[in-house]
Structure formats: C-alpha cells, structure tokens
Amino acid sequence: MSLIFLYTLSFQEKPEPGIPKFLGIILTIGIVSICVYYVSRYLETVYARIYKKPFFVHFYPMPKKLPTALLSILQANTFYKQLDKQKKRYFEHRVVKFLETIKFVGREGLEVDNDKRMQVTMMVIQLTFGMRNYLLEYVDTIILYPSSYYSILNKTENNGEFNPRSKALVLSWEHFNIGNLHQEDGINLGIHEITHAIHYCSLKSNNISSEIFHDTFLELEKHLSSVELRNKIIETNILREYAFTDKFEFIAVLVEVFMESPEKLNKHFPDIYTYVSRMLNFRYFKV
C-alpha cells in the first residue's frame, strides 16, 4: 500500500512541461518592452524628419543640484541667467551630470580648479541644451593646458583639439578665455572644439539628437552647393577663412558665429541660421 501511495504522490508532483509561469511573464514583458522601444523610436524619427526636433528634450524625475560654491559660478553665466526658472533647473541638473561623468586633467602644472571645470562644462551644456542626448559619448576626459601645446596626434603646435580615439577634448586655457572675452568676433576655441565632438557623435551614434544633427547638416550641405551663395558668404566675410578648410571646420566655425553673433548671421543668411538652430535644436535666441 505504501509503495502505491508514494508512486501516486510522485506522479502528481511531476512538473508540467514548458516555461515556468513567472519566466513566461518576464519574457513577455521583455518582448513587449523591446517592441514598444523600437516602435516609439521609429515614430520619433518620423516626427523629427517632419518637425525637426525630438518628442521631448528634458525629463528628469529627480533633478540634481549643485553645491553652493559651484552654484554661484553658474548664476554668473550669461546664458543661464536668461533662462526661466524651470529651464534653470534643467541646466543645473545637466551641469551636475556632466561633472560626474567627465574627468578633468591639467597639464604642464595647470591646476584645474572649480572655476575652470565649471566654465568648460557650462559651455558644453549651453551648446547641447537643445539636445536630449547632451553627454558627449566620445568624450571621457577634458585636458587643459596653460597655453598652446605640442600635439602628438597632429605633430603641430595647437590651441585645442578633439581626439576621438582617446575620447579626449584638449584645450588651451589661455585661448579658451580669449574666446570668452571677445564674444562677437566669431572666434571661440571652446565652441569650436566642442562642436567637433558633437559632429563626431552625430556620425557614430544613433540617438535622436545625433540623427537630427547629421540629417540637418546634410540638408545644409545641399543648400550650400550654390556657387552664388558660397561667393556671398566669402564676400560678407562673416566666416573666417579657416572655415573653408573642410566641412568639419566649416560647421565648427559656423557654430562659433551662430553662438556669438546670432543676429548678424540671421540678418545676412537667415536660411543658414535656421539650419544651425535645427541641428542643435537651439531655439533660445531672440533674433
């Protein structure tokens, strides 16, 4: 009798074939999540092609705040001061995230203090403030030299460079400051090199901000194919000669002018101004 009972019990406890219920639920949730992601990504791409902007730019459930010592530096920033209260919180959050992500290194005895870190960070955040993906994917380190330095990469004396292989942005602090002091001459080292990093990210990354930057840049290239327009750009002297080195230098110099003299660029070349504002999704100037 006992043998029959044990046999019956073991038969009843035998697990059913197939995937356990809880694993099935997890698998289903995973598949649905992936489908939702790719569908929403596709829809946003379509939306961006029509409206030239992402579904949204800012979403931070728990915005981060700067320590008081750093906040005082931020509050002196010209661009930050013109933002409304909500956008100031967004800007501050992005500054904190960037400082947490990027390593700053001083060379040739240069001490990288809070002011230097903040000045470079605020410039990056301003340039990418209209982009949802604002952390530069191909920049892990920012290296500051006191002045011009010899570049091992280019074998030349440089004021700044972007090195994608090392994921490094290199700047001469002297020339970075000169660019900030003369804000209407269309020459700004920080803006120039950061734009190179943004441009590179647009070629290598597949996020919506990079996609918009890249697609709009291609549209701008077609627009600039007109010989008459190119001659007009040269005649107005709105871009310095270095802009015509290649397409990468052209867009870097163009963004310098866009950020420093938006009214001037919009007055002479409103179509080009519009293309740049779309590339960066930067719609904060009143021109």
From TrEMBL:
Gene3D superfamilies: Collagenase (Catalytic Domain)
SUPFAM superfamilies (alphabetical): Metalloproteases ('zincins'), catalytic domain
Keyword Transmembrane helix in record: yes
Transmembrane segments: 20-39
Domain of life, source organism: Bacteria
Protein name (record): Zinc-dependent peptidase
Record's keyword terms, sorted: Membrane, Transmembrane, Transmembrane helix
The keyword Cell cycle is annotated on this UniProt entry: no
